[in-house]
Amino acid sequence: MKILFGNKKEDLLSRLKKQDPAAQKVFYEQNVKKFLSVGKSYIIDLYQAEDCIIKAFCKIFKNIEAFRGDGNLEGWARRIVVNECLNFIKSHKTVFYIDDINPSFMVEVLEDEITVDFDAQELLNQLPDAYRMVFNLYVLEGYSHQEISDTLQISLAVSKTQLFRAKEKLRVLYLQQQKTMKNEHAQR
Protein backbone atom coordinates (compact mmCIF):
# COMPACT_ATOMS: atom_id res chain seq x y z
CA MET A 1 0.00 0.00 0.00
CA LYS A 2 1.44 3.35 -1.05
CA ILE A 3 0.95 6.23 1.36
CA LEU A 4 1.97 9.86 1.01
CA PHE A 5 4.82 10.63 3.43
CA GLY A 6 5.98 14.20 3.16
CA ASN A 7 6.21 14.91 -0.57
CA LYS A 8 6.54 11.34 -1.87
CA LYS A 9 4.52 8.17 -1.86
CA GLU A 10 6.21 5.21 -0.26
CA ASP A 11 5.25 1.69 0.64
CA LEU A 12 3.90 1.50 4.21
CA LEU A 13 5.64 -1.81 4.90
CA SER A 14 9.06 -0.54 3.87
CA ARG A 15 8.61 2.51 6.10
CA LEU A 16 7.50 0.29 8.99
CA LYS A 17 10.62 -1.83 8.52
CA LYS A 18 12.68 1.36 8.81
CA GLN A 19 10.94 1.98 12.18
CA ASP A 20 9.47 5.23 10.82
CA PRO A 21 7.21 6.76 13.50
CA ALA A 22 4.91 8.35 10.86
CA ALA A 23 4.35 4.96 9.24
CA GLN A 24 3.75 3.38 12.64
CA LYS A 25 1.16 6.04 13.37
CA VAL A 26 -0.60 5.39 10.05
CA PHE A 27 -0.63 1.63 10.64
CA TYR A 28 -1.86 2.12 14.21
CA GLU A 29 -4.68 4.45 13.18
CA GLN A 30 -5.75 2.10 10.37
CA ASN A 31 -5.95 -0.93 12.65
CA VAL A 32 -6.48 0.05 16.28
CA LYS A 33 -10.30 -0.16 16.22
CA LYS A 34 -10.30 -3.55 14.46
CA PHE A 35 -7.66 -4.96 16.78
CA LEU A 36 -9.42 -3.63 19.88
CA SER A 37 -12.56 -5.37 18.71
CA VAL A 38 -10.55 -8.59 18.40
CA GLY A 39 -9.07 -8.03 21.86
CA LYS A 40 -12.49 -7.47 23.43
CA SER A 41 -13.72 -10.74 21.96
CA TYR A 42 -11.09 -12.53 24.09
CA ILE A 43 -10.79 -10.25 27.13
CA ILE A 44 -13.95 -8.82 28.65
CA ASP A 45 -12.34 -6.01 30.63
CA LEU A 46 -11.83 -3.06 28.26
CA TYR A 47 -8.72 -1.74 30.03
CA GLN A 48 -7.02 -5.13 29.98
CA ALA A 49 -7.95 -5.56 26.31
CA GLU A 50 -6.48 -2.13 25.55
CA ASP A 51 -3.25 -3.07 27.38
CA CYS A 52 -2.97 -6.22 25.27
CA ILE A 53 -3.51 -4.24 22.07
CA ILE A 54 -0.80 -1.73 23.00
CA LYS A 55 1.60 -4.59 23.77
CA ALA A 56 0.67 -6.23 20.48
CA PHE A 57 1.41 -3.04 18.54
CA CYS A 58 4.79 -2.80 20.27
CA LYS A 59 5.54 -6.39 19.24
CA ILE A 60 4.34 -5.73 15.71
CA PHE A 61 6.62 -2.72 15.32
CA LYS A 62 9.55 -4.40 17.05
CA ASN A 63 9.27 -7.59 14.98
CA ILE A 64 8.16 -6.14 11.65
CA GLU A 65 11.30 -7.56 10.01
CA ALA A 66 9.90 -11.04 10.67
CA PHE A 67 7.03 -10.34 8.26
CA ARG A 68 8.12 -11.90 4.98
CA GLY A 69 5.18 -10.84 2.85
CA ASP A 70 3.45 -14.22 2.86
CA GLY A 71 -0.18 -13.18 3.16
CA ASN A 72 -1.14 -9.68 4.16
CA LEU A 73 0.36 -7.50 6.86
CA GLU A 74 -2.95 -6.97 8.66
CA GLY A 75 -3.50 -10.73 8.97
CA TRP A 76 0.00 -11.23 10.34
CA ALA A 77 -0.51 -8.41 12.83
CA ARG A 78 -3.94 -9.74 13.84
CA ARG A 79 -2.35 -13.06 14.75
CA ILE A 80 0.04 -11.20 17.06
CA VAL A 81 -2.96 -9.47 18.67
CA VAL A 82 -4.71 -12.81 19.22
CA ASN A 83 -1.55 -14.38 20.65
CA GLU A 84 -1.04 -11.43 22.99
CA CYS A 85 -4.62 -11.82 24.27
CA LEU A 86 -4.18 -15.57 24.75
CA ASN A 87 -0.90 -15.01 26.60
CA PHE A 88 -2.63 -12.50 28.87
CA ILE A 89 -5.43 -14.94 29.65
CA LYS A 90 -2.98 -17.78 30.30
CA SER A 91 -0.86 -15.64 32.63
CA HIS A 92 -3.68 -13.98 34.57
CA LYS A 93 -6.37 -16.59 34.87
CA THR A 94 -6.73 -20.25 35.50
CA VAL A 95 -8.60 -21.77 32.59
CA PHE A 96 -10.14 -25.20 33.00
CA TYR A 97 -10.81 -27.35 29.97
CA ILE A 98 -13.38 -30.08 30.33
CA ASP A 99 -13.03 -32.92 27.86
CA ASP A 100 -16.25 -34.85 28.26
CA ILE A 101 -19.50 -33.95 26.54
CA ASN A 102 -22.56 -33.79 28.76
CA PRO A 103 -25.63 -34.60 26.63
CA SER A 104 -27.94 -32.86 29.11
CA PHE A 105 -26.27 -29.59 28.12
CA MET A 106 -27.80 -29.74 24.64
CA VAL A 107 -30.71 -27.42 23.91
CA GLU A 108 -32.96 -27.40 20.88
CA VAL A 109 -33.64 -24.04 19.30
CA LEU A 110 -37.01 -23.67 17.65
CA GLU A 111 -36.99 -21.60 14.46
CA ASP A 112 -39.93 -19.43 15.53
CA GLU A 113 -37.93 -18.33 18.60
CA ILE A 114 -35.10 -16.89 16.51
CA THR A 115 -34.94 -13.16 15.84
CA VAL A 116 -32.18 -11.08 14.34
CA ASP A 117 -32.09 -8.54 17.17
CA PHE A 118 -29.34 -9.60 19.60
CA ASP A 119 -26.01 -8.48 21.05
CA ALA A 120 -23.37 -11.02 19.99
CA GLN A 121 -20.54 -9.45 22.02
CA GLU A 122 -22.67 -9.56 25.16
CA LEU A 123 -23.30 -13.26 24.56
CA LEU A 124 -19.60 -13.98 23.96
CA ASN A 125 -18.67 -12.10 27.13
CA GLN A 126 -20.85 -14.48 29.15
CA LEU A 127 -18.96 -17.56 27.99
CA PRO A 128 -16.40 -19.08 30.35
CA ASP A 129 -12.85 -18.19 29.26
CA ALA A 130 -12.02 -21.67 27.96
CA TYR A 131 -15.14 -21.79 25.80
CA ARG A 132 -14.62 -18.24 24.52
CA MET A 133 -10.98 -18.81 23.57
CA VAL A 134 -11.71 -21.97 21.58
CA PHE A 135 -14.85 -20.47 20.01
CA ASN A 136 -13.05 -17.29 18.95
CA LEU A 137 -10.04 -19.13 17.55
CA TYR A 138 -12.22 -21.53 15.57
CA VAL A 139 -15.04 -19.26 14.42
CA LEU A 140 -13.48 -15.79 14.27
CA GLU A 141 -9.85 -16.59 13.47
CA GLY A 142 -10.41 -19.70 11.35
CA TYR A 143 -8.00 -21.91 13.28
CA SER A 144 -8.33 -25.67 12.86
CA HIS A 145 -8.75 -27.85 15.93
CA GLN A 146 -5.12 -28.93 15.49
CA GLU A 147 -3.95 -25.29 15.52
CA ILE A 148 -6.10 -24.60 18.60
CA SER A 149 -4.70 -27.70 20.27
CA ASP A 150 -1.13 -26.57 19.56
CA THR A 151 -1.75 -22.93 20.54
CA LEU A 152 -3.55 -23.65 23.82
CA GLN A 153 -1.62 -26.85 24.57
CA ILE A 154 -4.77 -28.96 24.88
CA SER A 155 -5.82 -32.16 23.15
CA LEU A 156 -7.87 -32.24 19.95
CA ALA A 157 -10.75 -33.82 21.88
CA VAL A 158 -10.73 -30.98 24.41
CA SER A 159 -10.72 -28.40 21.62
CA LYS A 160 -13.71 -30.04 19.95
CA THR A 161 -15.55 -30.42 23.25
CA GLN A 162 -14.97 -26.80 24.21
CA LEU A 163 -16.29 -25.63 20.84
CA PHE A 164 -19.35 -27.85 21.16
CA ARG A 165 -20.03 -26.58 24.67
CA ALA A 166 -19.47 -22.97 23.64
CA LYS A 167 -22.05 -23.30 20.87
CA GLU A 168 -24.54 -24.93 23.22
CA LYS A 169 -23.94 -22.29 25.90
CA LEU A 170 -24.35 -19.53 23.31
CA ARG A 171 -27.63 -21.10 22.21
CA VAL A 172 -28.90 -21.09 25.81
CA LEU A 173 -27.72 -17.52 26.39
CA TYR A 174 -29.27 -16.42 23.11
CA LEU A 175 -32.65 -17.88 24.06
CA GLN A 176 -32.45 -16.20 27.47
CA GLN A 177 -31.57 -12.88 25.83
CA GLN A 178 -34.49 -13.23 23.39
CA LYS A 179 -36.90 -14.06 26.23
CA THR A 180 -35.73 -11.00 28.16
CA MET A 181 -36.12 -8.79 25.08
CA LYS A 182 -39.64 -10.12 24.47
CA ASN A 183 -40.58 -9.43 28.08
CA GLU A 184 -39.19 -5.89 27.86
CA HIS A 185 -41.16 -5.30 24.62
CA ALA A 186 -44.34 -6.64 26.18
CA GLN A 187 -43.98 -4.29 29.17
CA ARG A 188 -43.82 -1.21 26.95
Descriptive account of the structure:
This protein has helices at 12-17, 21-42, 46-62, 73-92, 120-125, 129-140, 145-152, 156-187, and strands at residues 2-5, 8-11. Mean pLDDT is 82; it is low at 100-116. It folds into 2 domains: 2-92, Rna Polymerase Sigma Factor, Chain: A, CATH 1.10.1740.10; 103-187, Arc Repressor Mutant, subunit A, CATH 1.10.10. It has a two-stranded antiparallel ribbon. The chain has 188 residues and is mainly alpha-helical. A hairpin with a 2-residue loop joins strand 1 and strand 2.
Give the structural class: mainly alpha
Report the CATH superfamily of the largest domain.
Answer: RNA polymerase sigma factor, region 2, helix turn helix motif
Radius of gyration: 20 Å
Regarding quaternary structure, how should these chains be classified? single chain
- Based on the structure given, which CATH architecture of the largest domain is correct? Orthogonal Bundle
Note poorly predicted spans: 100-116
Spatial separation of the terminal alpha carbons: 51 Å
Work out the helix count. 8
CA-based shape: globular
Q: What name is given to the CATH topology of the largest domain?
A: Rna Polymerase Sigma Factor, Chain: A
**CATH class type of the largest domain:** Mainly Alpha
Number of strands: 2
Mean pLDDT: 82
Number of domains: 2
Strand proportion, as a percent range, falls in under 5%
GO molecular function: DNA binding; sigma factor activity
InterPro entries: RNA_pol_sigma-70-like (IPR039425), RNA_pol_sigma-70_dom (IPR014284), RNA_pol_sigma70_r2 (IPR007627), RNA_pol_sigma70_r4_t2 (IPR013249), RNA_pol_sigma_r2 (IPR013325), RNA_pol_sigma_r3/r4-like (IPR013324), WH-like_DNA-bd_sf (IPR036388)
Pfam family, one: Sigma70_r2
Protein name: RNA polymerase subunit sigma-70
